């Protein structure tokens, strides 16, 4: 009889191959802001019995199902070297029929400040809105910074277990943290670099002018970050134009993108959106590199105004990053998509002083979007996957396979589902993650 904790031969091969290649995900990622942060594995291996989508099944011109077949993937130098007919190879890792999907992307999270991995703490009673939370942070951050690297590592591991090998993380840059929050997170990313990538946003969480974070933001812009962040220019800093102008110029001076938290509704929220559109139109280099996170004002515009604003955002190539939804605020994502606005999602806060409920799963976010907007058919569910994968889908709208292809980056998640539609509808269990050719688990 096999001992209870004995490894099967397949498990032994899997673990041995990982150890030999040095691929156990335990390191970080501090990447270059001028180039995609990348991790290339020098090893070559195969994964067999990988289920891939190959086309749609139609009935009376309506998509009623998804075709799949199993294949063997050959991985080398961080890429999918070849997609082969399934082979009986004892040396290959066995995916056991799990469905491969593009690795998930969490595009709005705060890795630098979390209680995750430590003692449970629920959200404290709030007073004074965002400014009240700033005051609370000024009390909490000095202690949080003492262990923020370790907590960030635990949070990264949670994201990996949910299928995300990539994130955009906002990092506090303000007089309380100074640059320490950034430096601590960079250490965590360096330790996790073999199985995780991140792009970083220098985020003046306490306001550019409200706490005068400008000197720290200028210094952070010279460091390894990718985006210049911002927060509610009117309600926090008291002046839309002054705050946006500073943010835009700092991004232009250092070749960065822009990602601004905008919680404001009403006239100031709309004016902020319109002024940012104007500045991006004046500086086309920022098109496709500028985002509004949350942007709750869009949920409160009437039909005609929403259409005009969504069209202007699409023309300026300003993306929207939504947590789908936020409390009772339901974002107009279908309208944004209709006008070509890039819509991304993320978990935002996970077990911290802002939020208690983050799960770490963007697949769950895609499921929630499908429920909110009535995406219940096989076709509509399959299209919903793109919000979790940053737009990458296995099949195009005509049912032609477009992912994966030989030469693609070897970043994919293995899930317990028969197709994308089922993965979304059932929030499929994640069975494995490969990031840049490195098996994470």
From TrEMBL:
<dbReference type="InterPro" id="IPR052349">
    <property type="entry name" value="Metallo-hydrolase_Enzymes"/>
</dbReference>
<dbReference type="InterPro" id="IPR006311">
    <property type="entry name" value="TAT_signal"/>
</dbReference>
<protein>
    <submittedName>
        <fullName>Amidohydrolase</fullName>
    </submittedName>
</protein>
<dbReference type="InterPro" id="IPR011059">
    <property type="entry name" value="Metal-dep_hydrolase_composite"/>
</dbReference>
<dbReference type="InterPro" id="IPR032466">
    <property type="entry name" value="Metal_Hydrolase"/>
</dbReference>
<feature type="domain" description="Amidohydrolase 3">
    <location>
        <begin position="244"/>
        <end position="440"/>
    </location>
</feature>
<dbReference type="Pfam" id="PF07969">
    <property type="entry name" value="Amidohydro_3"/>
</dbReference>
<dbReference type="InterPro" id="IPR013108">
    <property type="entry name" value="Amidohydro_3"/>
</dbReference>
């Amino acid at each position: 009889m096999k001992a209870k904790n004995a490894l099967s031969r397949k498990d032994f091969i899997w673990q041995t191959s990982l150890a030999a290649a040095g691929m156990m995900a335990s390191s970080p990622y501090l990447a270059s802001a001028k180039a995609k942060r990348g991790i290339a594995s020098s090893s070559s291996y195969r994964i067999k019995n990988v289920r891939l989508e190959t086309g749609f099944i139609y009935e009376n011109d309506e998509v009623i199902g998804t075709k799949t077949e199993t294949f063997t993937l050959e991985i080398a130098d961080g890429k999918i070297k070849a997609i082969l007919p399934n082979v009986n190879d004892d040396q290959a890792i066995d995916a056991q029929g799990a469905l491969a999907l593009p690795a998930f992307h969490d595009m709005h999270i705060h890795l630098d400040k979390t209680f995750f991995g430590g003692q449970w703490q629920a959200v404290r009673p709030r007073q004074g809105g965002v400014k009240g939370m700033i005051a609370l942070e000024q009390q909490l951050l000095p202690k949080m910074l003492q262990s923020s690297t370790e907590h960030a590592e635990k949070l990264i591991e949670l994201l990996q277990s949910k299928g995300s090998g990539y994130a955009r993380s906002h990092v506090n840059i303000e007089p309380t943290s100074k640059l320490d929050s950034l430096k601590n997170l960079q250490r965590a990313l360096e330790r996790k670099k073999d199985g995780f990538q991140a792009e970083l946003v220098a985020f003046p969480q306490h306001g550019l002018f409200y706490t005068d974070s400008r000197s720290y933001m200028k210094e952070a812009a010279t460091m390894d970050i990718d985006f210049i962040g911002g927060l509610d220019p009117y309600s926090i800093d008291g002046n839309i134009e002054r705050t946006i102008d500073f943010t835009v110029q700092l991004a232009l001076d250092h070749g960065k993108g822009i990602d601004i938290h905008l919680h404001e509704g009403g006239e100031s929220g709309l004016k902020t959106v319109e002024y940012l559109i104007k500045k991006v139109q004046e500086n086309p280099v920022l098109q496709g590199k500028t985002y509004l996170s949350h942007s709750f004002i869009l949920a409160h515009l009437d039909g005609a105004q929403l259409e005009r604003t969504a069209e202007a955002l699409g023309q300026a190539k300003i993306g929207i990053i939504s947590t789908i939804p936020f409390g009772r605020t339901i974002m107009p994502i279908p309208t944004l998509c209709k006008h070509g606005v890039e819509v991304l999602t993320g978990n935002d806060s996970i077990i911290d002083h802002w939020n208690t409920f983050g799960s770490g799963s963007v697949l769950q976010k895609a499921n929630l979007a499908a429920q909110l907007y009535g995406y219940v058919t096989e076709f509509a569910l399959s299209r919903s996957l793109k919000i979790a994968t940053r737009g990458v889908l296995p099949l195009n709208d005509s049912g032609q396979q477009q992912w994966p292809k030989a030469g693609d980056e070897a970043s994919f998640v293995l899930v317990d589902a028969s197709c994308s539609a089922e993965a979304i509808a059932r929030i499929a269990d994640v069975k494995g993650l490969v990031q840049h050719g490195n098996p994470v688990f």
